[in-house]
Hints:
156 residues; mainly beta; Thrombin, subunit H; four-stranded antiparallel β-sheet; 1 helix
Amino acid sequence: MTxxxxxxxxxxxxxxxxxxxxxxxxxxxxxxxxENTISxxxxxxxxxxxxxxxxxxxxxxxxxxxxxxxxxxIKDKNxxxxxxxxxxxxxxxxxxxxxxxxKVIMEYSVDGRHIRNISVSYQPFDFAIIDSDRIxxxxxxxxxxxxxxxxxxxxx
Length: 156
């Protein structure tokens, strides 16, 4: 069966009338563009609303003054701290990454009360708050983990 194979060639034979038409016609038509103005009964939803316009006060950055709102002491280890990162959670608690700590990020309340130590895999170099439950923790060994601070689970 394999000693005889069929070979098919497919082609197109154009009708003689079309060939003569192509020889005698310069173009098949023209493209025409018409412009019409249409009136639509749409109304801008914001046209009836009042808008608050924010006017810059003209204060420059160099005249901005910081105001101390709260002062508290960090629990330190042997009177040596090496704070590498801090951030404020949506519940206003403060997270602090102290590189001299052993594998924890400290959580403090707004009034400076130590709430807890959040265990992490290595000594924390820095972190970023993702949302109220998750932070991304960076370590000195160039790894980053996403950590759920409610149940201390690490996302892969």
